[in-house]
Design a protein that fits this description.
Length: about 850
């Protein structure tokens, strides 16, 4: 049996421009064919595809940042160490055209090309041909993002490209300082790009510099490669509103369109490649056998053993690892001081556990956490200071394995760290960004006392920093307490916030004269009331030219008054006037309604007026103004002219009239008619049409078809289609089907679907079922589910139950930047302690 078409490594004496004889990669004929189909088929830790030589000369090393790609070490670039294993030599006969597998001691396992590699390869090839490009690989921890970047840049290595990895003294500082020196044919390596782009005060400047670099033809071509976890991608690309709309503006523009998703799991095609390659790499064979559900990359990186090491750790090492996991989960930087870990870990132990621990408990815990997994990865490793670099002021630093970090974000999301954790942050963390993040995390969990304590550490003489981490209400309380303390030091006796009062000045009542605009509005309204219609018409039509919407309201009032008195000609003259803009406020709707009412008042002209209304409504719908057409269909239906309503709706270029008729017939129980209109609406491209069809199929018991149609609606913008189907099934007494559909909705990204179903059960008195579903929704990512259910319990007089659910929600934390839920303020006005007990009012 021949080996699969993969890349191999060989040694040549004439390698590279210096003839150093370093490893060079060659490709088999079969490998090149495979590369055309699915991307890159590669072996080992320094793999590439040979392209034709560039005509451009290699840039002077003194003018650019970084090192030649061929001189870089993938492990130094933060490609994960892999599990132990061997590359096994293929049993090749003399003259075998296939290249033998790589050396037995290769640092990285054979690489299996995946679909995202094909996307990335196109970008790299574009750079090789002279254009500057950027790509950001987005995926979970240990899914192969960094390794994919490393393999991709091998395409550029033979052409003299360099790689610049900014990291010293910090990633963000190094990037900002060196970005201006990046020259042509350079790969800018931004592994874990949040450390660059989310850095306070610096991230926006780095993003702006990268945008300039990518658009500067004189400095190109360059390739900017980054990796991000999905949550960081969402944070950096979210379009916010209000005062936060400018946050990450430069970063958002930089990242837009640059995303390449890296799946957590190998798909069936990739698993076949893995199995075919396993004969030549023992590690792949082990991964194929032992990786759960296709989590190959994570398995190769030693994740299972990491988790086993943590889950079965003795009490003291587990306390240290838990403290590190919580620190990263709540926003601290990747490097954690030893004295922080020591102080924080003590609170994760019971009194008995702490008393019985040996005197060298910390040293033993660190030794346990430092033992390598599969000989390469450690749960917690010490970060060594390189020669010539200044040692950190706050002692030795440690870094948590990032797969444990991600595991902690999920598995510990319902846990609020103990008192010792928050005090250790205050006493031993020096980076202001870390302290600020911890203060925000405390605020988000309603631990107000610790939020204020941490905020005070980053406050100077001004209280502005505290305002950035506390809600206005809590900042005001902190400010009042500060004033009280100052008064007490000065001999004052303020003992309660009410003692610090500011006497408001007496209000000055000013009599303001009405403006001419107000006079005209009041005059026109009096004219309409007094039936002086000509005079009112003159004022209104003149005022409309100012585009003041109050005159449009008076126009509507005038036309209705004229029609009420059956002055049809006058009413139509007004709405047809050239001085009335056809796109003015509510004018299209007023025009259609007026024509229809006029057709009823004057039956002899009824058909002509109605035809005019129909044609106008259809033209408005073509321009995107669908409401007049919907209103006309509704008026025809209400007057018993269903056939006219049907014909008009079928002529509609928009789906809205058809959807209204579908909903009308669903309410009447006329499923056949409803389905007809829903199908027509779906044909017009309406996702809600598919949603209605899904409900009708569910009524007939065709659950699979109903779910398929609802999924189509969800994929095209009707995000709650499956959830609505779930709620309908619950209402008609099919709870198991309802839950199945809600689970499918959750799987597709509607994380509140289970919660909505739970609220229905709560209203029907099924409290255990409601809580089970809402907790599932919270686990899936619903931010508000537990608080909403807690509020429902509180409204029903079940205060202990409400408190228990609200505490679960508080431990999870509220969404960043959102006001704390009112139920927290009602239950615990002074906040919570880390152990969940209410804070005593000061």
């Amino acid at each position: 049996m021949s080996p699969p078409p993969v890349w191999g490594r060989r040694h040549d004496g004439d390698e590279g421009p210096n003839g150093s004889g370093k490893p060079r990669v060659s490709v088999t004929k079969g490998g090149l064919g495979a590369g055309r189909d699915i991307g890159i088929g590669i072996v080992g830790d320094n793999n590439t595809v040979h392209l034709s030589p560039d005509a451009v000369s290699v840039p002077d090393a003194a003018d650019v940042s970084g090192r030649l790609i061929g001189e870089c070490d993938p492990l130094a670039l933060e490609v994960h160490h892999a599990i132990k294993g061997r590359h096994l030599r293929a049993e090749a006969k003399p003259g075998d055209p296939h290249v033998a597998a790589a050396s037995v001691s290769a640092a990285l396992p054979m690489y299996i090309p995946r679909w995202h590699d094909a996307q990335l390869r196109k970008i790299v090839e574009t750079c090789a041909h002279g254009q500057s490009k950027m790509a950001v690989l987005v995926g979970g921890s240990s899914t192969g993002k960094t390794r994919a970047c490393w393999e991709a840049v091998q395409l550029l290595a033979p052409h003299g490209w360099r790689l610049w990895h900014p990291f010293d003294p910090t990633r963000a500082d190094a990037a900002l300082e060196g970005l201006s020196r990046v020259g042509p044919r350079t790969v800018v390596w931004l592994n874990e790009a949040q450390h660059y782009l989310a850095a306070p005060q610096i991230g926006e400047r780095i993003a702006a510099g990268l945008r300039t670099l990518l658009s500067d033809a004189d400095r190109g071509p360059v390739l900017v490669l980054g990796t991000l976890w999905p949550e960081y991608w969402d944070e950096l690309t979210a379009r916010l509103s209000g005062k936060d709309c400018a946050a990450h503006a430069q970063v958002r523009e930089l990242l837009t369109g640059q995303e390449i998703r890296v799946p957590d799991l190998f798909d069936s095609h990739e698993m076949k490649l893995l199995l075919a390659s396993a004969r030549w790499d023992e590690r792949l064979a082990v991964a194929h056998k032992g990786a759960p559900g296709g989590r190959i990359a994570q398995f190769l990186a030693g994740a299972p053993e990491l988790l086993r090491r943590y889950q079965h750790a003795p009490m003291v090492p587990k306390a240290v690892l838990s403290a590190a996991m919580d620190a990263r989960r709540l926003g601290c930087g990747i490097y954690l001081p030893l004295n922080f870990l020591e102080h924080a870990a003590a609170g994760y132990l019971t009194d008995e556990e702490f008393d019985t621990a040996s005197d060298d408990w910390l040293e033993q815990a660190l030794a346990y956490a430092a033992r390598p997994v599969h000989g390469n990865i450690t749960p917690l490793r010490r970060v060594r200071t390189r020669p010539g670099h200044k040692a950190p002021d706050n002692g030795p630093l440690y870094r948590l394995a990032d797969y444990l970090e991600q595991h902690g974000q999920q598995e510990r999301r319902e846990i609020c760290p103990p008192e010792s954790f928050w005090l250790a942050i205050h006493d031993h963390i020096t980076a202001e960004s870390d302290i600020r993040a911890a203060a925000q995390a405390a605020q988000a969990r309603w631990r107000l006392r610790h939020s204020r304590l941490l905020a005070s550490k980053i406050s100077t003489s001004d209280t502005a920093p505290a305002r950035s981490v506390l809600s206005p209400r809590d900042w005001l309380a902190a400010r009042v307490a500060q004033i009280q303390g100052q008064l007490a030091q000065e001999g004052g006796h303020a003992s309660h916030p009410s003692a610090v009062q500011a006497s408001p000045p007496e209000a000055n009542v000013l009599r303001l004269e009405p403006t001419q605009l107000q006079k005209n509005l009041e005059h026109a309204q009096r004219c309409i009331q007094d039936k002086r219609f000509k005079e009112a018409e003159s004022i209104v039509l003149k005022g409309i030219r100012t585009e003041e919407f109050h005159f449009f309201l008076l126009l509507e009032e005038l036309v209705q008054a004229l029609l009420a008195d059956e002055f049809v000609e006058d009413a139509l003259r007004v709405v047809r006037s050239e001085r009335v803009p056809r796109d003015g406020y509510r004018v299209p709707l007023l025009f259609v309604e007026s024509l229809y009412r006029a057709s009823q008042i004057r039956p002899r002209d009824g058909d002509g007026l109605l035809d005019e209304a129909k044609e106008y409504a259809l033209k408005a719908a073509e321009k995107g103004h669908e409401e007049p057409l919907v209103i006309l269909v509704q008026m025809l239906e209400a007057d018993g002219r269903a056939a006219d309503a049907d014909r008009l709706a079928r002529r509609s270029p928009a789906a809205s009239p058809l959807l209204w008729l579908a909903e009308l017939h669903i309410g009447r129980g006329q499923d056949v008619e409803a389905e007809t209109y829903a199908e027509l609406a779906a044909t017009c491209g309406s996702p809600r049409g598919y949603s209605y069809l899904a409900r009708l199929q569910g009524t007939r018991g065709e659950l699979e078809e109903a779910m398929r149609l609802a999924a189509i609606a969800g994929d095209h913008g009707e995000v709650e289609a499956l959830s609505k189907l779930s709620q309908y099934l619950e209402h008609v007494g099919r709870p198991s089907d309802a839950e199945r559909v809600a689970l499918e909705a959750t799987h597709r990204g509607d994380v509140d679907a289970l919660a909505r179903l739970g609220y229905i059960k709560e209203r029907h008195g099924l409290r255990d079922e409601a809580e089970r579903l809402v907790r599932l929704a919270a686990t899936a990512g619903s931010r508000h589910a537990l608080n909403v259910l807690a509020q429902m319990r509180l409204d029903s007089g079940l205060r202990p139950d409400a408190g228990r659910l609200a505490l679960l929600a508080a431990n999870r934390g509220s969404s960043a930047g959102q006001q704390s839920p009112l139920i927290w303020q009602a239950l615990w006005p002074s906040g919570l302690e880390p152990d969940g007990t209410p804070t005593t009012p000061s």
